[in-house]
Write a structure and sequence with these properties.
Pfam families: Hemerythrin. Helix content is 78%, strand content 0%. It is mainly α and 143 residues long. The protein has a single domain, classed as nmb1532 protein domain like (Four Helix Bundle (Hemerythrin (Met), subunit A), Up-down Bundle).
């Protein structure tokens, strides 16, 4: 995760970045379990989805809404939302009786790239693009 540009000093970005670390760790545990054929894979998948759903909701209803309204990063936001849909679609549609673990592994690869794009692209750009009034609207009262 990024620690060099200062964007984590913005409370919402700091919170989303912390959640990215938790999501990346959960994805890593799932990947390891799948590749080693060990562990309760469905529980690990559920743990990851349980982290992803509220995280992407926070991004899409807060930061992404403000970025769409501002306009300069709207295309990037649309791409990231499509990636959310893709990743959630794969992870949420797994046949629990006959899981397609290769599809999950591919989705985890896309998730890794997605997080990297947000951390090193969108978040620093958002700090520059959004006015303070937007940050005031989306900054959580508790972090």
């Amino acid at each position: 995760m990024c620690n060099y540009c200062g964007c984590r000093d913005f409370p919402l970005i700091g919170r989303l970045s912390t959640e990215h670390e938790e999501i990346a760790n959960a994805a890593g545990r799932l990947r390891t379990a799948i590749t080693q054929g060990q562990g309760d894979l469905l529980t690990l998948l559920d743990d990851l989805v349980d982290l992803l759903l509220p995280h992407t909701s926070t991004e899409e209803t807060g930061l992404f809404t403000e970025l769409r309204d501002e306009g300069s990063l709207a295309e990037a936001v649309e791409k990231l939302c499509a990636e959310h849909d893709d990743i959630h679609g794969v992870l949420g549609a797994i046949d629990r009786d006959a899981p397609d673990w290769p599809a999950v592994l591919a989705a985890l690869d896309r998730l890794h790239r997605h997080i990297d794009n947000e951390e090193h692209g969108l978040f620093p750009a958002a700090v520059i693009a959004l006015p303070i009034s937007a940050w005031d609207r989306i900054t959580p009262t508790t972090v």
